[in-house]
Fold:
Amino acid sequence: QVQVQESGPGLVKPSETLSLTCTVSGASIRDYDWSWIRQPPGKGLEWIAYIGYTGITNYNPSLESRVTISRDTSKNQFSLQLRSVTAADTAVYYCARDHGSSTSKWFDPWGQGTLVTVSS
Amino acid sequence: SYVLTQPPSVSVAPGETARITCAGNNIGSISVHWYQQRPGQAPLLVMFYDTTRPSGIPERFSGSNSENTATLTISWVEAGDEADYFCQVWDNSGDHPVFGGGTKLSVL
Structure:
């Protein structure tokens, strides 16, 4: 079965770049689509970015200017970079596998999540 | 961007039926997916394509979607069902997913 696991620094300074990696097991990232989703403490879920099995990408318009999603097929990993972070970017960051079609997608499974705090 | 509205909280006694709603403009014309998030845990998919349960999700969980409201129904509620529940759709105009604000289910 597919499993995903986030990794990366838990603390990032304001104005710097947040970098996270999602390691996938049980499936090749070249066979499916994958997403990053975040959840500020005590708040709801916000989709950040998607990378398709072909390598095509799509971003949340509200974050697009600061975000890059990429992949390393040799390591079966995909990554997130969020530039110029502020305290508002403090959140639990999840990676997940996408399911569905181009007109309706859902997410399963999700990683356990990693808390990233933006603070000096 | 498409907006989904959920009630902040729903409370039921054990054994009763919980109905968690997700309102959106003509939401009945698109597919809705639901996630359960227990405290301190990652979200878990409990319903997709309005009414389909993933493997391992009890039959007590069911879904419906019509006109402007989608509903996740949990029958014979148990203490272990206490969690936050989020609905999610695909915003075709923006070409990205949208989540509802979440509903906290409390089991009295």
Chain B touches chain A through 27 residues (CB under 8 Å). Chain B has a mean pLDDT of 96. The beta strands of chain B are 9-12, 18-23, 33-37, 44-47, 61-66, 69-74, 83-91, 96-99, 103-107.
